[in-house]
Predict the structure.
Amino acid sequence: HNLGYQGLFDGDRFPRLGLPESMMTGMTGAMEFYKRSNFLKAGIVLADKVTTVSEQYAREIQSGEEFGFGLEGVLTNRAGDLHGIVNGVDYAVWAPSRDKHLPYRYNLSNLSGKRMTKVELLGKAGLPVRDKVPLVGIITRMASQKGMDLIIDGADELLSMNLQMIALGTGDKEYQDALKVLEAKYPDQLKVYLAFDDALAHRIEAGSDIFLMPSRYEPCGLNQMYSLKYGTVPVVRRVGGLADTVVDYDPTTGEGTGFVFDEYTSEAMLAAVRRAVTLYARRQKWVKLMKAGMRQDYSWTRSAGKYVKLYESIVS
């Protein structure tokens, strides 16, 4: 799921496992990783097939240490058996037409509940209701993997745009502290909730106009898929599952489902947000973009079918 977490232990603890010494012998040892024992490496080496949670991430983790965290060579050796399958969404839980956490439900044919949810969300956050101003939602683990450094570094310019923001999450203290400083500086534009709150997460997904997810890397990501279903236009970096699930808006054709940027810089993120804010003022085009996202199908039915085919290929 995430190559950043591998199950690494000092090599001198290996004998406690009761496994053959050959598992730790030289470069051929399935578990040996620079004289440490690595459970994930052993799984990759010994498995019949290897899966990860998006097609793009399956390619990225073979491309270099930035994504492979030292296992890129091992994964390249298994390239023929490595498969990326995007995670699915449970639309019985995450769909605006049936979401039990929403004060007002809505669907493709009637979006009025989205605006009413936004008004209530802003009211509870203590932010003024400004009809022509987009609300940007952020629901995240506050860590560098999630692009928090881009958000903090670009915050002043971001909040100089005609927008409001609500952020929910917990994580590294430096990011939490920085967000609270910004909240005090921009009391009419920014509300920060340092918590894990599932009900509030649903309301932010529904009440926001834009969802910001500028990840450094993202094996799959779920919030961008939730956002699509809720008509909350995602602004994402083109990595991992974000690249596989969000199509960059083309102003010439009007096609797309969100706004995508490539470089891991605050400038690139801000440019993508600016594109979104500009289009938001053109209501007809914006609603078309919202509805294109709401029509996407990232249900488990689709993903499970791919897993079944993979399992069948192994047993056959």
